[in-house]
Amino acid sequence: MTATVQDHIHASLSGVTRIYPATAGTRAVHALGQVDLDLKRGEFFAVVGPSGCGKSTLLEVLAGLQQPTAGTVTFEGRAITGKVPDGIGVVFQEDASFPWLTVWDNAAFGLRRNGVADAEIRRRVDDALAFMGLKDFARAYPAQLSGGMRQRVCISRTLVLQPRLILLDEPFGALDAQTRLLMGDEVLRLWRRTGATILLITHALDEAAMLSDRIGAMSARPGRFLDIVVTGWPRERDSKIVSEAAFGEITGRLWDNLRSESMKSLGYSGMAAE
Amino acid sequence: MIATNRAADTLMILIVLLLAWQALHQVVGATALPGPVPTLAYLAKFVPSERFAENAWATLVCFFYALILSYGIGLAIGVWMGVHRLSGAVGEPILISLYTLPKVTLYPVVLLIFGLSLSGRVTFGAMHGVLPVALLTMNAIRNIPPVYLKSAQTLQLSRWQTILTVLFPATLPEVIAGLRIGFSLTLLGVLLAEMFAAKHGLGSLIINAMQLMQAEEMITIAVVLFAFAALANALLLWIEHQLHRRV
Amino acid sequence: MSRVGWIRIAVVATAIGMLEFCCRLGLIDHRVVIPPSEMADALVRLLISGQANDQIVRTFGIVGVAAMISVVAGFALGVVIHALPRARQALDPFFATYYAVPIFIFYPVMIVIFGLSIMPIVLMGVATAIVAMIIATLNGLDRVPQVLSKVGRVHRMGTIATALLLKLPAAAPHLFTGVKLAVSYAFIGVIASEFILAPAGLGRVISDAYTDFNNRQMYALMLLLIIVATVVNMLLHVVDQRWAERRGIGKP
Question: Are C162 and C144 in contact (CB under 8 A)?
Fold first, then answer.
């Protein structure tokens, strides 16, 4: 029996709440919490939940982009305070490729800033671009590429820094369904190759069910974990598992958790009885 | 609540400008730049006077004719270039080049052709205003989403119905933007023409006042023209916003 | 070159040709407009003789200085205003109305304050151009995608590094549009001022030539102004387009 994940805690959130303070014109928003989560080293963890439930807030708090209002966040044993720690990579939902740089320069961006030697930069960037299937487009500009390719540029840019924890905030939100499935395969390849711990935020249940070792189902705002589903998939998996029976059960269990939460977040009331 | 805050902020800026005016006045002296208060006093005296009325009327008449030409010719060119794609493609860069060209350079030609007459000033004013009207009208027509035309077809609308009930309202906000810019530029053109070489009109009055070192009159006329242009622009902008909200 | 490009050249050439034709045939009075070929000839002779060189250098020099001041100061002011949302809101109506009012009305006032020197002309050039640059800077900074600040933080970049390496390049095309407009408006401001009243400069020389009935001189210099203004604007436009294409920004 192949070991799927090591039982080492890589990052954790304990007692975390996040309240956006009131400003002139808006009231305070209790976006997240209370959340407790232990991410095991090397695992693939997905967070699903209705729109506005605080999934992105969770990711940003974990990355150190936001400070929790209460509770602590640790990464590799050390508390995160205000700065994004070295070793965490983030891929955002919006297209964050730099339109003024070529694909190659985009990927090399982080490395150049860290004073890595030129030869090493070339090696890592060429490697990452080849791995993401962008080798032939190294000299192109993002504006000439499709949305999916631009996201791969962003992933390459994160890859070359060899992060140990990769956070993906609905990276395939803007793509069509078929592209999403293929990109899911890409992420799995990435995961196996790097051995990194991955946290994926998504609203697509099938995506979460297909890709993850564990899935956290989040309630409507303020987001809390309603359930954590263990999938038990083998490490060597790809999109073909959508045909397995277990896939349907997992998706079903997620939807059981989330159906009424989704309706809540959409403003339905009193319809749940049907 | 937010609206009154914004109004208050803008009022603050106006007050700061007035204070800056006063400060500049202290620095350069009354003969060069009269302060806000004496200017207001002069304004109260001068505006009701016959000399002002005569010249303001001359400017207004010239402006009115120039505006009709700007709007008429501008809309015609704009519609043609918007509808007839090839003309639009060919003509757009030419129009843009003319737009960025300092038309002041062509003023002597206008003078040579028309002399110091009203027609010359009207033509010069129209030369300034016709281009933004044409360009924005052309763009408005080009930017009509094709889906509107397809919808009109599926709704079995006749050609005239399509133009009146779909195309016209769809292009209106952008056309009004063109008319607004055309308004300001036509006024600028007319005033410039009067400043160069004219015996009547507020522009010539300013040059006269300058030659006679009558700083008070100069700045008063400037303030009046500013107020007129600003208010007209605000009105047209308001109309534009109302239209945008509907669209 | 595309078919449209050829048609355009043909249209312009035909227009010039017709003008030449009408002038030569006497349909247009020689005292009003001289044939384009004569204009060109007069210009070439003038340039060779070097008579107007002082004025040419002076005028284009002033335009250049006014444009540069407007771009630098306009950018700086734009950055500052962008960082102060309340100031921006308060100034909004001011910016919206600025190009609606005839700024040239203040030129005589400036002459009275600064005397008939180079100052009022430079000031007019800057006054005409600077607000366009401020507005373009504000627009450019607006269009910097929010996600870029987050990316900066993920790469652990400080505020200045984020501003210079991420925000500035992201805003660059819009800033360049501002530069384009600033140059264009500086031209208009300076030339118009020189026409109205100036001690020297191309505008002054052209209006003198007009009063002296020296049509050849007048048209020669007019042609020079038109050519330079058109060429400069076209070059800036081409660079702007090339940049916009590469960045995938739609045609303006």
Answer: no
